[in-house]
Amino acid sequence: MKSAYLYAATRTPFGRFGGALAAARRDDLSATVMSGALAQVPGLAPEAVEDVYWGCANQAGEDNRNVGRMGVLLAGLPVEVPATTVNRLCGSSLDAAMSASRAIECGDADVVLCGGVESMTRAPWVLPKPSRAFPAGNTTAVSTALGWRLVNDRMPAEWTVSLGEANELLGERFGISRERQDDFAVASHNLADAAWSAGFYDDLVVPVAGIDLGRDEGIRPGSNTRTLAGLKPSFQPDGTITAGNASPLSDGASAVLLGSPDAAGVIGSAPLARIAGRGVVAVDPPQFGYAPVEAAGRALKQAGVTWAEVDAVELNEAFAVQSIACVDAWLESGLRDAALVNAMGGAIAIGHPLGASGGRVLGTLAKRLRESGGRYGVAAICIGVGQGLAVVLENVA
């Protein structure tokens, strides 16, 4: 079997809920990053892209009707370039990359564009269709921005608690204090601010036409624990999760170009990293925040790599509490230093547009390995309703 390689990666700046990207449609954001990824490899003829795998968690509004295909058309790629849209909630764009890498490995394609998009701002309200005409009662519009909606009555109640309530349970399970969570969140903001100031993200992020947003909108430079300590718990009166130590609702898109080793001549540049291992796992739905632990373990096993050999980790920070739980477990498994995780900031600061976050962590990981000279890295993400994904990259730049 062939190997799959990462040749290019890009993303938009991530915007806050109702912020700078609020007017940007999901299909337009998709087109922006598709064009941005191809611009990084100017030697690649657009018609050489054989397929597009695109992630999106919502698909209830402007992102319906296969938003990946809409992005291809709006980006000006040839109409002969096909596309599919995949949905694994928060893991959608990482799932898209994993699917694309499998297509390359089994010989179905040599050049595949993948990524994902989400606008949580523009997620619509939905009304359930009545079972019969002219119902007499009232109907409530349901927000599709985040979390469970229109739940099946046969689902156990403990499975359908909110994401925040689920992670309060995770914090109790591992005894993770509010102080540790706030410290983690402060580090996320300050590391992201430092990375932007140092120029790390300059060639990873493509601007959105007509929108004045030069960097991720949610980053708070100079964050400190005193400010975060004053925030009230969001999910339980005596809880530990607040708006300050959880990822915000966000808008944005990301894209990654994958190819076979034979594609280097077609693409016109050398690959940056090899997809060395993949891991997918499911757990009890309320424990979804801890799923990256086993997913990463499976990906490392497939790659034939131990935690002691890992030089960089990009973990999507859905909540500080679940990120701490995962890092603690990885340290016990042999990860050398917690500082290897999210050294350029994480989703608590950068933002978490659900369908785009997997592509972001994968692209960031590839660049970190390239700049540091490290050999192996892990990108991992937790997924609501009890799933986790992970990818191991090997630096070949």
Write up this protein.
- This protein has 397 residues and is α+β, with helices and mostly antiparallel strands.
- The chain has a domain at 5-122 and 248-395: Peroxisomal Thiolase, Chain A, domain 1 (3-Layer(aba) Sandwich).
- Helices cover 31% and strands 18% of the residues.
- The protein is built from eleven helices and twelve strands.
- The strands form two sheets. Strands 1, 2, 3, 4, 5, 8, 9, 10, 11 and 12 form a ten-stranded mixed beta sheet that branches.
- It is globular, with a radius of gyration of 20 Å.
- The mean pLDDT is 97.
Distance, first to last CA = 21 Å
| Major sheet characteristics | 10 strands, mixed
Low-confidence stretches: none
Any guess at the CATH architecture of the domain at 5-122 and 248-395?
A: 3-Layer(aba) Sandwich
What is the fold named in CATH at topology level of the domain at 5-122 and 248-395? Peroxisomal Thiolase, Chain A, domain 1
The gyration radius over C-alpha positions equals 20 Å
Number of strands: 12
